Amino acid sequence: MKAIPWFVFLGYICLASLHFGCAEGATHYYDFVLKETNFTKLCSTKSILTVNDSFPGPEIRVHKGDTVFVNVHNQGNYGVTIHWHGVKQPRNPWSDGPENVTQCPIPAGTNFTQEINFSSEEGTLWWHAHSDWSRATVHGAIIIYPKRGTTYPYPKPYAEKTIVLASWYKADVMEVITDALTTGADPNISDAYTINGEPGDLYDCSNETTYRLAVKYGKTYLLRIINAILNEETFFGIADHNLTVVGTDGAYVKPVTVDYIVITPGQTMDVLVTANNAPSYYYIAGSPFADTVAPFDNTTTTAIFEYKGNYTPPSPIPFPVLPVYNDSDAAATFTNKIRALNSAKHPVNVPQNITRQIYMTVSANILPCPNNSCLGTSNGDRLSASLNNVSFDAPSMSILQAYYWNLSKDVYTTDFPEKPPTYFDFSGNVDNITLYTSLGTKVIMLDFNETVEIVFQGTNLLASENHPMHLHGFSFYLVGKNKGNFDNATDPLKYNLIDPPEVNTIGLPKSGWAAIRFYADNPGVWFMHCHLERHSSWGMDTVLIVKNGGTKATSIRPPPAYMPPCSKS
Prior knowledge:
Layout lengths: L6 E3 L3 E3 L11 E15 L2 E8 L8 E4 L3 E8 L7 E4 L25 E7 L5 E7 L9 E7 L13 E10 L4 H11 L8 E4 L16 E4 L4 E8 L5 E6 L4 E6 L2 E8 L2 E3 L4 E7 L6 E9 L11 E7 L20 H8 L20 E12 L14 E6 L2 E3 L6 H6 L33 E3 L2 E4 L4 E8 L8 E5 L4 E8 L18 E2 L1 E4 L3 E8 L4 E7 L2 H6 L2 E6 L23
Parallel strand pairs: 3-6, 5-10, 11-14, 13-21, 22-27, 24-25, 26-34
Antiparallel strand pairs: 1-2, 1-3, 3-4, 6-8, 7-9, 9-10, 11-12, 14-19, 15-18, 15-20, 16-17, 16-19, 20-21, 22-23, 27-32, 28-31, 28-33, 29-30, 29-32, 33-34
Function: Lignin degradation and detoxification of lignin-derived products.
Cofactor: Cu cation
EC number: 1.10.3.2
């Protein structure tokens, strides 16, 4: 079954398209059918979980302020949830999707209709499965056009193309993470990366299917780039062509022209590229950014930027110059250039007077195993991860449902530490610091409309690296970041409170810190986690619960008539 294509109910039916002709606040309906589908990559065929038989999955296209209902039919073999990454879902955490945080999995053989409420988002976001590692193949783009009657804050491009970066495993990806969690060892790395579902010329049996982006000379294209890769951040570029970044995470930024971008898992970027070089073939490439000693997939995915016309294809095809895999300085050079547009039509609203400050260490750790039976370390421990030395222990019941129905006693506690339980030289020598953490289902309680600052602090425990930290239910402002330990006396003096980027996912520098600010104006239960899947699986997660305000309009909406049952499936 195909996704229902753009039919819009407005008291009548009209066909929504790229033309901004329908009335404001339209409602769209889609059917997503989860099922196993055979795909052939890297010389072998395997069955993967897909939506509507496609990899990547179907696009959702809306205008700013629209509402979407997606009926998710699970015809797969196990329970799954779907998350609408970067959509704030005002007062409606019931459809946000993270498993056992806002809902339990949709059991195989059943369906669940989710309501996606778009508010201030504009640009590119994405949707993906939020159960174990099923998002490896269950994901797709969300395109949010400007509100009807308005347009982009930059010259309208000739055409738009979606670029989805993803991981490919020859093995069953769910078996990969299940085996890793059973043994306590590091999960196996992927076998390839893909661009729009294709690995590209540098992998076996892949030349004939390499994705080709056909362009006309002299025309400017908007590339909507999504990083759906499981465990690696990405350097991305096009040979002999500049990229102009104009948006990220569903918000506009000041245009900045670069040779390459750095994009973490979870992030999206809107990029303009002009086909202004000699008509030919040029490689598009994505290679890993992994400043760590932990294992990672050190391969490169390619596509071809192909001019239309008559010419002899070059040999070799020009290849973009990308930084080496561990070049943290190159990553920082790029991210430091990103600033919010902050125009009259697209202003920022950065919290100035902070009422709640949270200082949060982000660490890889270990947990003991019975009889030293695990394979994570030579001492028989299992690999783990934590925030403020609490490794998130996912409950078997939805935290949202427990909170709403006052059942918290048996599901979670409200004592998540708001500062590190032990202070040490986080970014320095940690030889004498224990690697062990402890499990807990601990949440942070926030009053409605508090002004919140969270400072993430990377540590050198076990294996330090850049962490893509993501918060559900909010966009936030990245007001500062740097290497080393955060200094609460001096570092805030250097914050950018004028035009910081408004995002939902940030790269926490290796052995460094990053400060974010937001208004806690969205009542609900919201997941916060590292978007490297192995770290999230190990417990580098927590939950923020924003209490209701004093009115119906500032309180969580009532739950829908049906929610998936909380039983393992």
